[in-house]
Amino acid sequence: MLHRTWLDRVTDWINIAVLLFISIAMIIPFLYIFSVSFSSMEEYLSSDFILWPKVWVTGAYEYILANDKFIKSVFVTILITTVGTLLNLAFTSTMAYGLSKKFYGQRLFLFMVLFTFLFSAGIIPTYLVVKETGLLNTIWALIIPVLISPWNLIVFSQFFKSIPEELNEAALIDGAGELRVFWSIILPLSKPALATFGLFYAVTHWNSYFTGILYISNPNLWPIQLLLRQIVVINDTSSLITEQVLTDPPPAETIQMAAILLATLPILIVYPFLQKHFAKGVMIGSVKG
């Protein structure tokens, strides 16, 4: 058994204390948002800092979920996130698989990818391209310009290179084509990479904010982050009202907190289902002998 000195024990306690402090510092803001969103007007006005409401009130959530704009904004964000992530994974994985193979002109294509990674066109040229291609005020303006991430592409390509070439050769000898090898062998072995990059792409689309400001001027196509900007930053909770007008609306601050919580909740729910794939070693034992 490894002998531990008093210095090792002190170091462990310091690490525990630091991690505990960081955890509390990260949890308290979420707890505050959660508590304020369920607080009544009287309690919110009488308290400077709320960590647990005395009386639970759901008026802010009823106020938000009773209007069409918020529901439509969530639907647009879900559509962008779902379609965008699937297309991101499809284009990134196929191009990465191609770059992982040796072929004539491979260095040229790799240089083009690295060039776009180091040097971007800028906001104005990108906006002009989106405008001239007719993508303004469409959800495709938030998907196509970010279809492939150069960094994810390079990392994905290195992941494919780590897959033993014997698998490809065995499949090709059995009569499978490159597309069949990629679909039936490579992708099933790439679940950890697909889950990781899928989560990265999904979070990027769900938090799509700046591109929405640039390319979307139609309020009916606002993703949830643009509506949150209207509610939280501009402090315009009246933008949620459509036909219905509440005679006694909840405080604007509780509406803001409830909107933030509802916009964050889907990603928090999805993450635990993908986390198990991050460090899962599916390649272990795939090739024997």
Number of domains: 2
And the CATH topology of the largest domain? Answer: MetI-like fold
Radius of gyration from the CA trace? 25 Å
Alpha-beta content class: mainly alpha
Q: What is the CATH H-level superfamily of the largest domain?
A: MetI-like
| The CATH C-level class name of the largest domain | Mainly Alpha
The overall pLDDT average reads 80
Give short descriptive properties of this protein.
mainly alpha, MetI-like fold, 2 domains, 13 helices
What does this molecule look like?
- The chain is mostly helical and 289 residues long.
- The protein folds into 2 domains: 6-57, no CATH class; 61-275, MetI-like fold (Orthogonal Bundle).
- 65% of the residues lie in helices and 0% in strands.
- It is built from 13 helices and no strands.
- The chain has helices at residues 6-37, 41-46, 59-65, 68-99, 106-118, 123-132, 150-161, 165-173, 178-189, 191-206, 210-215, 224-233, 252-275.
- The longest helix has 32 residues, at 6-37.
- The radius of gyration is 25 Å and the shape is globular.
- The two termini are 36 Å apart.
- The model is unreliable at 281-289 (pLDDT under 50).
List the helices and strands and how they pair.
Blueprint: H1 6-37, H2 41-46, H3 59-65, H4 68-99, H5 106-118, H6 123-132, H7 150-161, H8 165-173, H9 178-189, H10 191-206, H11 210-215, H12 224-233, H13 252-275
Helix pairs in contact: 1-13, 3-13, 4-7, 4-10, 5-7, 8-9, 10-13, 12-13
